[in-house]
């Protein structure tokens, strides 16, 4: 009786985990995607790798230097531990998710991927180079998605040899917490690519919203002018960052003030997006606030560098 009870207890304990694994394998088998490549292991790349690994996918995480990959793995481990504390996952899921991550610097590793997402900095030339490198290594027919915040998906797609298998998959920061993925079809994106991407979002338990291809899509076309205006208000001495954020949090019910959010996104990322909006629409209302540019020039990039509109300890 006793051994049976012990075995039963063991099985009962592992059943939800096994069921979860089986469930994900079944879902993944539906579209043949089991291995996902993520290019860039920064703020967004590590979050994207985290959610795919947690959902049962094998993840090839690629960056240019080992130290960026080490930093990303540390962040993912910390964020998974936070999810354990919140009761969202158990210790075995954390261990399994970490085991599914394969950090690489060699682009050739992408040949094993069934789906790939690019999350390198928001600079057109860099993105084009990275996307072309990935395109040359990925198997024909594999979907290549970009997490760009603002650059035209049609333009990026056109520089690859797989425009019909190219799509925008705009995750929000922090990826493990935020439910939204803006899914953007380029002019040549096929229905099959769109359907695969939408169903992948569902498997990650994300809310996918399909929008059309235009600079900044919806999220950043609406958000960035607000952040920029908040920076102008500080630059012109209308109010201190704390006061600007307090007005928006208390008066408009925003969970974060625009400057707090800008620090969180990265002030360099904000300037890059504003530059894309400015160029894309040819409208001066999108010109980046000089104070934002000055902070970026000083290396005050926000939370990730320890200083932006606010100072952060422990960064
Ligand atoms: N930060 C945000 O809140 C946010 C939100 C949504 C989307 N995005 C978008 O996601 C993308 C990435 O932004 P981020 O904030 O993660 O940037 P980041 O600077 O934090 O990370 C970028 C990473 O890409 C790596 N990289 C550079 N060149 C590379 C290459 N050739 N191959 C592989 N990796 C390379 C860098 O070493 C770095 O680790 C951008 O397009 C950005 O607009 C950012």
Describe the fold and architecture.
The protein has 315 residues and is α/β, with parallel strands linked by helices. It folds into 2 domains: 9-211, NAD(P)-binding Rossmann-like Domain (Rossmann fold, 3-Layer(aba) Sandwich); 219-305, N-(1-d-carboxylethyl)-l-norvaline Dehydrogenase, domain 2 (Orthogonal Bundle), CATH 1.10.1040.50. Helices cover 52% and strands 12% of the residues. It has 12 helices and 8 strands. It has helices at 2-31, 43-54, 66-85, 91-99, 124-137, 153-158, 191-203, 219-235, 241-252, 258-265, 267-281, 290-297, and strands at residues 35-39, 58-62, 101-104, 115-118, 143-146, 166-171, 180-185, 207-211. Helix 8 packs across helix 11 (267-281). Mean pLDDT is 91; it is low at 1-20. The site of nicotinamide-adenine-dinucleotide (NAD) has 25 residues, from helix 2 and helix 5.
What's the quick description here?
The chain has 315 residues and is α/β, with parallel strands linked by helices. It has helices at residues 2-31, 43-54, 66-85, 91-99, 124-137, 153-158, 191-203, 219-235, 241-252, 258-265, 267-281, 290-297; strands spanning 35-39, 58-62, 101-104, 115-118, 143-146, 166-171, 180-185, 207-211.
The SSE string, one letter per element, is: HEHEHHEEHEHEEHEHHHHH
Number of strands: 8
The structure class reads alpha/beta
Beta-strand residue percentage? 5-15%
List the helices and strands and how they pair.
Layout: H1 2-31, E1 35-39, H2 43-54, E2 58-62, H3 66-85, H4 91-99, E3 101-104, E4 115-118, H5 124-137, E5 143-146, H6 153-158, E6 166-171, E7 180-185, H7 191-203, E8 207-211, H8 219-235, H9 241-252, H10 258-265, H11 267-281, H12 290-297
Parallel strand pairs: 1-2, 1-4, 2-3, 4-5, 5-6, 7-8
Antiparallel strand pairs: 6-7
Helix pairs in contact: 2-3, 8-10, 8-11, 11-12
């Amino acid at each position: 009786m006793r051994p049976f009870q012990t075995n039963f207890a063991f099985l009962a304990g592992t059943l939800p985990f096994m069921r979860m694994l089986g469930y994900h394998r079944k879902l993944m088998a539906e579209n043949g995607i089991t291995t996902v490549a993520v290019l860039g292991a920064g703020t967004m790349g590590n979050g994207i790798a985290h959610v795919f690994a947690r959902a049962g996918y094998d993840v090839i995480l690629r960056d240019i230097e080992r130290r960026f990959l080490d930093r990303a793995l540390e962040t993912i481990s910390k964020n998974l531990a936070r999810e354990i504390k919140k009761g969202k996952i158990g210790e075995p899921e954390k261990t399994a998710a970490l085991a599914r991550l394969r950090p690489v610097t060699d682009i050739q590793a992408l040949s094993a991927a069934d789906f790939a997402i690019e999350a390198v900095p928001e600079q057109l030339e860099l993105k084009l180079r990275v996307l072309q490198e990935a395109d040359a290594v990925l198997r024909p027919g594999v979907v290549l998605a970009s997490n760009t915040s603002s650059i035209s998906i049609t333009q990026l797609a056109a520089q690859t040899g797989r425009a019909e298998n190219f799509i925008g998959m705009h995750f929000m920061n922090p990826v493990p917490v935020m439910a939204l993925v803006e899914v953007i079809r380029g002019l040549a994106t096929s229905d099959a690519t769109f359907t695969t991407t939408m169903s992948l979002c569902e498997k990650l338990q994300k809310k996918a919203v399909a929008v059309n291809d235009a600079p900044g899509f919806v999220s950043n076309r609406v958000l960035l002018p607000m952040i920029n205006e908040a920076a102008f208000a500080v630059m012109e001495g209308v109010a201190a960052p704390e006061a600007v954020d307090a007005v928006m949090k208390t008066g408009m019910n925003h969970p974060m003030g625009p400057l707090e959010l800008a620090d969180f996104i990265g002030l360099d990322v904000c300037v890059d997006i504003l530059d894309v909006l400015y160029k894309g629409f040819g409208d001066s209302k999108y010109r980046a606030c000089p104070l934002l540019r000055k902070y970026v020039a000083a290396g005050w990039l926000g939370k990730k560098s320890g200083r932006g509109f606010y100072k952060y300890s422990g960064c």
